[in-house]
Specification:
Protein name: TRAP transporter small permease protein
Strand content: under 5%
Number of domains: 1
Number of strands: 0
Number of helices: 5
Order of helices and strands: HHHHH
Keywords: Cell inner membrane, Cell membrane, Membrane, Transmembrane, Transmembrane helix, Transport
Shape: elongated
Pfam family, one: DctQ
Subunit structure: The complex comprises the extracytoplasmic solute receptor protein and the two transmembrane proteins.
Function: Part of the tripartite ATP-independent periplasmic (TRAP) transport system.
Length: 179
């Protein structure tokens, strides 16, 4: 179990770093968006590439932030039910949900996304719009993002299993909100 918990720690560290980098993409997207608006309005200049890079960054923010969000227990769930459950029951719900739903779905999308990326890269797919960008970089973000989400799902599964086995505390539980 120690080796699995070390692996979980490495996955957590990876998704923490990637998630923090994704946060900087928000600032970059705002700067690009504002710059594009200024050029379009003040100088009557516009480019499809600027619009597409905003779209690429928006996709990257969500795809690369998904594992980080899971690590920090930030994904949406039905808290009125889940929050009332005992810690062990919540751990079982997370464990079963991760194994039956999260991991198969994330791995399937990562695999299918890799196929889409490989085809796009092989043909040198570009945007059909004038001045558009290559499409393979954003297509690569799909399997990478879902791969990171699957890795975090594995980490969360390890942590829940260790908690249920009495080998580790469940330290990442969200704190109770006070009203």
């Amino acid at each position: 179990m120690r080796a699995l918990l070390r692996l979980s720690g490495l996955i957590d560290a990876l998704n923490e770093r990637v998630g923090r980098l994704a946060m900087w993409l928000v600032l970059a997207a705002v700067v690009v968006s504002a710059g594009n608006a200024v050029f379009r309005k003040a100088l009557n200049m516009s480019s499809n590439a600027w619009l597409e890079i905003q779209w690429y960054m928006f996709a990257a923010i969500f795809l690369f932030g998904a594992g980080y969000t899971l690590k920090h227990n930030g994904h949406v769930r039905i808290d009125i039910l889940y929050g009332r459950l005992a810690a062990r029951t919540r751990a079982w719900v997370d464990l079963v949900g991760g194994l039956l739903f999260l991991l198969p779905t994330a791995l399937l999308i990562a695999w299918l996304g890799w196929t889409g990326f490989a085809e796009s890269y092989a043909i040198g797919e570009t945007s059909p719009d004038a001045g558009g960008l290559l499409r393979w970089p954003v297509r690569l973000a799909i399997p990478l993002g879902f791969g990171l989400l699957a890795l975090q799902g594995i980490s969360e599964t390890i942590k829940r299993a260790a908690f249920l086995a009495g080998k580790a505390p469940l330290a990442d539980e969200a704190p109770e909100e006070t009203v």
